[in-house]
Amino acid sequence: MRNGCYNPGVLTLVRQALQRRHLHRREIAWPLALMVALLVGTGMLLNRPLRYTINVGYAEGWHSDLPLLRDWNTPEPYGAQADDLSYRWSGEQSSVWLPGLGRRTWLITLDQLAASAHPQAADGDFWLSGPDMAVSHPLAAQRRLHVLITPATSAAGLLYLTAPTFTPPNDPRVLGVPIATLQLETLPGPIQLPTPRLLWPLALLALSWITLRLSGASLRATALAGVLLLILLLAALWSDALRFALAGPPLLIGAAWGVGIGLATRLALPRLLARLELAPAPGFVNGSAWLAGLSMTLRYGGRLYPESMVGDLGFHVNRLQEVTQGLIHLTSRHRGIDFPYPSAVYVLLAPLRLLPLAPTTLVEWSAALCGVLGLLAVALLTLHSLRCERTAILAAATYALLAPPFMALWWSFLAHIFAQELVAVLIAVLVVGWWRLGQPWSMALTYAMLTLIFLGHFGLWINVSLLLAGLLALGWWRGRNTNARAPLRGLALAFGAAQATALLLFYSAYDELIRDKIAQFLAGGMSAVQGGRPAIGRQALLASLWHDGLVAHYALIGMPLAVLGGVWLTQRRRGHALVWVFWGTLAVAGLQSAIPFITASTITTRWLSFCAWAVAIGVAIVLEQLWRRGWRGQTLAILLLGWIGSTTLWMWLGALGYRIRPPEPF
53, 182 in Cβ contact below 8 A? Predict the structure, then answer.
């Protein structure tokens, strides 16, 4: 241009400003579009014709009755299956919870059983009532009732059932009327807007978007994650609108804790990495923090869902109370066997009983937090050993998505969760600090970790003892002509001191019990130890190992991929401490897997869960190798990880909303 008006620098600044404006618009447009799509999808699903069945008395499984029934009596018959005739007696203030349905007119079909045992069966009535309705029916006969539910009652979300009550002889229950089935069916009406109970996904979607962007995820990756979350939320709403409406408070509370745990990880992890002389890119720290937050959200939020699977929660609350009162040497019975019950986790939690927290809250929260510690240990161990940030993140993601930690969580095996996650931390301490094991502070840390594990879980005391005894013997033999014995001496001292502490302070108190069990085993085998329980055939054990073990624990593909990853690890890192610990863990698991076939019993040391950290690293190595092979390999890696995650998520949903028990971890 003339007069020197042309200035390339000005055009560059203008172009950059336009690009920033475009990116800013996209940054706002994507989450808004996802929220609008969520609102539209929620409205469409809310107004579709709906037929919903509640099998009253069927407490565990699809179409089960909890948490939609409030203040009813126990199910009859106990343990009824979906096709069995099951029912519950109503109580003094029984109600049916119908959340999130809006102001719609419903037809409810109710199967009433004969109340012949009721003193007022001949002339008594029971009532179905709501804010603007009250309908009475006689108690006498078995019948199927059809009742219109008014829009006001539907909006209130509670349908009350009131009946004259009685208490049978030698039975403390207060009984009203027996009900077998409830079925809801929508009737045509005006279009309804989404109710407040169905809007909690907006907060979850916004929180997920913000945390992903702050953790360094690209706009494209965040958008894809948002679309996936949107699909999952709408699929959950489509499959079960009533239970979906109840998920908001527990999952948002879990997400709030997840954000807190993620921020704490984001602050603490760089300092730990600096002390270990590791300097990964910010993406590793952000990704680890995000996975830690996600794990806490699923683990703690799931436990808060109303009437989710209880497991052994009451057992561990009682153990915590006993330890708080000074009873340290506990005994427990598992499948007919009395055995020492270590109490380290309860001793650590005992001071927290001074806080204004319910014991159940403390147990559930600590179980969720332990899983986060194991996840971070796996990430740190992989990063230090393989020097690959993507493999480390993949290992942490795989560990977060594996089923065994969630199995233990839903069964509320607090002692097992505590010790199992400490095993992952112990392996990280040993491998990362291998050449420092001869130093006093490293020996002290190893001793502390081993002592907590030995005093934390009886089965993992056995597994870790076998692992370290074998590694020490093999390492001492292979290192007889080298300088490799220095860390072995430190490990041996810490291992021996931890064994002495556990034996002298705890297990020696059970000397008579252990000797009696050994004598019973020598006299009559495992059946005598278990109080005369019949032996289990090898075919049944094989079926359990296949279905409840390899398929349920590791989605079938987990263990083969782990072995394949271990072979690659051995070829690339021959002689590395991680290689020895990896194969040593699998060897202990293989040894323990043979014991049930020898004893004809299902008593195990949780050997399949014991190798979860190794499975996660092995799978991550395979995924990393696939990722390096172009878009086809990346697609396959995503599908493999998605398959493992989807099987665990399905199990999580079943235990959360329907009390479906996963297999016990073993």
Answer: yes
Q: Are 103 and 155 in contact, with CB atoms under 8 Å apart?
A: yes
Identify the three-state secondary structure at position 130: strand
Distance of CA 83 to the CA centre of its chain: 29
> Can you read off the two tokens belonging to residue 650?
């399905």
Count of Cβ atoms closer than 10 Å to residue 489 Cβ: 14
Within 10 A of 151 (CB to CB), how many other CB atoms are there?
19
Cβ proximity of 153 and 133 under 8 Å: yes
Secondary structure (DSSP) of 496-526: HHHHHHHHHHTGGGGHHHHHHHHHHHHHHHH
Which residues fall within 8 angstroms of residue 160, CB to CB, at 6 or more apart?
93, 94, 95, 127, 128, 129, 130
Q: Is 18 exposed, middle or buried (0-12, 13-18, 19+ CB in 10 A)?
A: exposed
Judge if pTM exceeds 0.85: yes
Q: What tens digit of pLDDT does each residue of 329-348 get?
A: 888 877 767 888 899 999 99
With residue 641 as reference, give the H or E element that holds it. Answer: helix 630-658
| Under 8 Å between Cβ of 108 and 147 | yes
Tokens of residue 662, six digits = 């996963």
pLDDT in tens, 15-25: 555 455 555 67
| Chain CA centroid to CA 562, Å | 21
Identify whether the C-beta of residue 261 lies closer than 8 Å to the C-beta of residue 369: yes
DSSP states along 555-571: TTTHHHHHHHHHHHHHH
Dihedral, CA of residue 46, residue 50, residue 56 and residue 60, to nearest 10: -70
Q: What is the pLDDT of residue 290?
A: 92
Concatenated DSSP letters of 409-424: HHTT-HHHHHHHHHHH
Tokens, residue 231: 């699909």
